[in-house]
Amino acid sequence: MRLVYWTLFWCLGIVVAASYTFINDSLWLIAAFLLSIVAFLGRSFPRLRVALWLSVAFALGGLRMAAMPNTAPIAQYNGASLTISGVVIDIPDVRDDRVQFRLQAESVLRNDELIPTSGYVLVQAPPFTLVSYGDRIDATGALITPAEFDTFSYADYLARRGVYSIMPNAAVTIVGQTPPSPLLRAIFELRTQAKTAISHALPEPQAALLTGILLGDEGGISPQVRDAFNTTGAAHIIAISGFNMVIVSQLAIAFALHFMPRRAATVFGIIFIALYTLLVGANAAVVRAAIMSSLLALAPLFKRRTYMPASLAFAALLMTLENPTVLWDISFQLSVFAALGIALYAEPLLKAFRHLFNVPMPPAGMRMMVGILEEGLIVSLAAQVFTLPLIVLYFGQLSPYLLLVNVLVIPVQSLLLIGGGLAVIVALFSAPLALPLFWFALVWLSWTIGVVRLFAQLPTASLSITVDPRWVALYFCVLIGIAMANATEPRWLDRFWRWLNRRLTPATLGVGILVPLVLTIGMLNARPDGKLHVWFLNMGHSNGVLIQSPGGAHILVDGGRFPSRLLTALGDRLPFYDHTIELLAITHPDRWDIGALNAVASRYQIGAVLYHGQPNQTPEFLALQNTLAYSDWVEVRQGYHVQMDDGLLIEVLHPAEQPSITDSLNDNVLVLRLRYGEVS
User: What pTM, to 2 d.p., does this model score?
Assistant: First the structure.
């Protein structure tokens, strides 16, 4: 336990140095040096020795924080317009309205003068910018300082990642490439193939959710879906977290145990976690989750009760040594406390669960239920026991349905990870063979999204709560006390579990029956009902209309500029097995109305495109033309019509002639009229 105390005083020194910045690194260095001498001379006094070495840890923590740079050379150009040359150092984050990535600056070009520099810049480029990890680029634009908001400091958030400058709306030119290692290249290619396989096999928003869970890429999740997860307290499912890592490591170890002893299987699981960490991007949060899950995987090999606290302390020491500002990172705090909760409470909760379900049932059924819940619900509840007060403290809101939502969705996450992971692996070799596995995962993805959306729509889905930090500290003291009581295994606790066991009866439902049943019901409900359906999609300030003919054909008119929003709207309305849009109508080449269509064209098979033929040279329109190069483009004028077999008639009312490239976009839009029976 000495390491725990040493780490606590080290972190205390970091906090003090951050609060009293007038104490510079020289003073901290002198203090650490003098205290080290005193501690060495006083080593023969046991009572003083511990206090002195803890003081040394305190001074060293302060020294590390004081030596932390609070700016970068590139930041001196904030407020200027220039061109930065450098290397892309992480996987680009592709979002609806931009692509952003960290650039390691090497030089700046300003007033025709090339000046060497260094530091990281967060580059935000237009959404169709194609850059990759390792690309050597020139980024041109205005360099700005990150903003400070009333309740959140974006500047501090980026500073913890070494970024002190942002270049929004940057014009990016690729000038070369710094090739990554063969291992990294293979992993990045595998990640791209996996993402493509998911997007081609599943509709939205299920595809984006599985991509976020498996690959850590949350860019495709629409704001509405993300808000629903945040509102109900289920956002931890989306992100690559300690929970995901624990499940992945335990599954890898369980697989390896069939071929090797426990110790070797654990090593295999940790190596698997390391490769998985590289696959999902290896950002700071993912690395922390990987370290915590690796410590939990090693725990069974060490029989000492002090292993986990000491190991967590050692991990925290290493992370703060590399970057002391990580102490203020909420994800770091949540990772540490989640791992601590799992270490202290996963086994007692699992024991309680097995007591509750200790009734006659088929052995196979018992193994199935325990296997499903042990690695899902139990682990997640143990983590949430410790992370819930931190979430309330920092975000000031709490969903009264948090536990209920997690009880409903967490048990299926193991099945989701297994089914989705196997589907991706099989899809790398054969997409058709992987489709049943993707549909298996689709059931659990749809269940997760459906439950979250249902509870997010309730009037009291999220309550604003302010909590005193002292209550949070008291809460943790109580939890640790309960864990200590459980470790002693008093008789009254065993009697309590037996009493509770007699009053609860487990109910099981075979997954092999449930999944085909849900898929069958979904297919039956998705069949055409013989009616004309017209949906005016909520695309913000943009336009998007989806039409389903009585026979089940789908027509999309425009689509707005946000891919995740449009893909989610389509995924909510089209059958999960249908990846065809028979007709796409483009009313005018305005990026606000067609910006999202490129993503749709890459996911769905487009039968034909109706367009009035106005030339356009915007990047969005050119990219859409390139993606739809193999679709039939039909230039239409007033009087043109499309007659469907089921009786639906589409008429073109405007324009009468092809608009030129200089004509107004809004004055020459393609106007359509639908006729079905007596309705138009």
Answer: 0.73
